[in-house]
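Our collaborator T.R. sent over the components below with a one-line note: 'Predict the complex.' Nothing else. No constraints on interfaces, no templates requested, no preferences about which chain binds where. So this is a plain run: every listed entity goes in together, and whatever single assembly comes back becomes the starting point for the next discussion.
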Amino acid sequence: MILQLKDLFKWVNSGGQRIFLLNDIDFTVNEGEFISIMGPSGSGKTTLLNVIGMLDNFNEGEYTFLEESVHTLKEKHRAKLYKEYIGFVFQSYHLIDELTVYENIETPLLYKNYKSSERKAMVADMLDRFNIVGKKELFPSQLSGGQQQLVGIARALVSNPKLILADEPTGNLNSTQSEEIMELFKTLNRQGVTIIQVTHSESNAAYGSRTLHLKDGVIVNTH
Amino acid sequence: MIRNYFKIAWRNLIQSKSFSILNIVGLSIGMACSILILLWVQNEISYDKFHTDSKKIYRCIVGSGDFKTATSSAGMGPDLKEEMSEIEAVVRTTKFERTLFSVENKVFEEDRFMYVDPEFLSFFDFPLLKGKKEEVLKEPNTIVLTETMAKKFFGKKNALGQIIKFNNNKNLKVTGVLKDLPPNSHFNFDFISSTLTIAKQNKDFANKIWGQFNYYSYYKLNETVSASKIEVAAFEDKINRIASKRLDSNAFEFRLQPLEDIHLHSNLQLDIAGHGSIQYVKIFFIVALFILVVACINFMNLATARSAKRGKEVGIRKAIGAQRRQLVAQFLSESLVLSLIALVIAVGLVVVLMPYFNEISGKTLGVDFTSGGFWLSLLAIVLVTGVFAGSYPALYLSGFNPVKVLKGHLKTSGGNLFFRNGLVTMQFVISAVLIVGTGVVYKQLNFIKDKNLGFNKSNMIIVPFKGEIFKKQNALVTALQQNPLLENYSVFNNMPTNLDTGTIEIDWEGKEKEDGLVVPNLAVDDKFIDVFNIDVLAGRGFSKKFTASGKNLVINETLMRLMGKDLMNIIGEPLEWKGTKRNVIGVVKNFHFKPLHYNVEPLVMLQRNRNSRFLAIRTTINQTEASLKALEHIHAKLNPAFPFTYSFLDADLENLYEGEQQMETIFNILALLAIFISCLGIYGLSAFMAEQRVKEIGVRKVLGATTVSLVNLLTKDFLKLVVLALLISIPLSWYYLNEWLHTFAYRITISSWMFVLAGVLVLSITLLTVSYQSIKSAIANPIKSLRTE
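Returned assembly:
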């Protein structure tokens, strides 16, 4: 088991009313799973992903990540935890425009205080693995969407996280690029990386081992 | 990691060029200003500290009532030293004398010559290039001159042992050459000669007179006394007790003025010229600091305004594991890189501008690139500026919530907006205060220039006597009388622009004894009052039929009132002057015989046809040339050895306020720069604002908003801040400018139109700056801005 959510609620108060963003979520993820979260717009997919990624807080319930109960942790400790074990992939890639491909991939390692020689080796490894060695000196604006997302994934993977959280990773890509990215996820998953993705597309969801359907913050079914 | 920070910082600077240029221009101008002013301040506060014993040296000064002078007598110092063990050493100097030196056939007229006691060079630290400090002034008829003067007089020849003819009547032997005086010395002599030279003919020196205050004396006190203020005060009391017994009068108060205070804290009459003022040091220091602050505010403002752009980056970095302090470090390194670049440019500017600054400020400052202190202070400037300017943006930007900014929900929070508005308001306040200041200073100096001094200052040629003229006064007067061009002449003993005489030996019936009243006096000929166009209110002026005894006095209104008389009953009143009974024959309207810093003091005018020192000639504009030629001709005949020199009275009067004029120039420049830098910032800010609201403007335009209403929308926010700033600046500038105006006895009152003018100026400058961007975005095609979404 890598993480477990138990009786988890998240809400906002609006005009005296309590609106539930996440409503009584019970959910366990085991190591090596590839989970897809589906649901209509506003159903709470991204919120759930952010909660899992510890970027967002929740109001009630328990969250256990690798034996640590996240809800009792201090902010600093929590940051350390997700920094160490979680990699993020975003729909609009979110690469840093001022940095080259190489530097974008290197940045997480800087924040984890790896030595320069180690960083070089790890980034080189990633560039190799994703076949983008030739593009390492380019800036994001010089790449296609698919290539940018490739860099985004490489950046998420470079520090060997246990869990990858991907928020509609192919949302801005055409179908060919989408397929490539999903194939890549599948391969990574086979190599032992746990993946949770939010997606709108049934075909993308099919790559996963399990799909979670959300509606109005409630898990409506799992299969 | 650090390298990475700087790399990113550099790329960010390159990427956002307009942002960087606005900031770097502002910061480098601000820094250059601060460096120049700090160098000036450092020079001002370092005066006379280079003497080894500077903390032990005091100048003995004397005051009588409100009349406080920097001078003391010839006899008191040496006598006191013999009596009192607290005094380790005493040296005296005379005032500067205008002197004619001749070397072989060359003639030099010099202003900065004085006599000093033989121990002068051991007492102070003025290093000699040639000669031994204990010996050079030991003999009478010796002279020591500075390196520059030695070069001027003797070229490459060895100056030592050369003979200089002094005022055509005596030979002085050069016994030493001084290194040029440091610029931070309150003494600014070029030549010194031993007082032994005049020990016999000068009665004050020969008889050790206590009661004639025509000299400067410096006492070196022993460690125990000089170390504590209380001891010094007690010692002053002791001196005063001795002096009042010896002078048989309580009218005088002697004080010991610390040497290091002379330059900045001295407000005495008859002082050595060229003083600074602690007030100006403070004002300029603060203004320079303000300019730097304004530049820093630009950075803060622009950096936070750009937060929408940087927000995404912060979000990503946080999501991939950046801690807040790492982000803070990153943003701080950006501002440090920026301020470092600005500093390099600033140092370049300082080097280039230094000669101009020296010209304006009348200093000889330089940048000493070999001094560690200089580099250290530069480093301090970079660090302080970088950290100060970068801290707020760094803290603000690094505090973003990654989820929100990545979703694009970045709203300018109220706190941020408030802070930014606060900063902009502060900039406007500073600009407005400086503008009001510029106006008030300008008005006051014009007021002084145009003030009716009580005499007519236009078309008046002034010729100071020198050389043989002193002995040939009758011949001069005869020659003047023969030439119709020169018939409006007057000879007198002291310039009525900055009178440096005064005595307490005056008495009338009913005068309080020892009230400390010092009355300046002016010895003039019968034509003086007419030639200067001074109004006679009662009685008459002096007449041609003058008997040598001269028992008649003309006084001014102030003295008349002090005597308790009025215009009806003053004529014929007896007045005792320097021990002889005399009579008041006339009263003149008050005229200003001192700079306008002082009120019109009581004045006694006496008639004397000998011992004049100045000649004044009233001409008309058309005749000035011819009159000068005629004068020169007379001068060449009577006084062939001396070059003919003259000046114009109105120019002399303006020179009295040279310090104020310098201050005005510097102040104007600083104000201009502060406003310019503020404008840079506001321009940048308006650009970002327009960019941020581009969609809103597009929508409004599609809905039918006119260009005018859009420009109005974009400028309104700034104008509100300007108005607020103006309101704040009124009491501030009013207070500080009144403080400055109070250094003048005659001053303008600050009136409301000055604030209105400043307000209109600031408003229009702001409008101009902001309107470019506003108009640009208001007339842009809305389709472009809306299409992107």
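Summary for T.R.: The mean pLDDT of chain A is 89.
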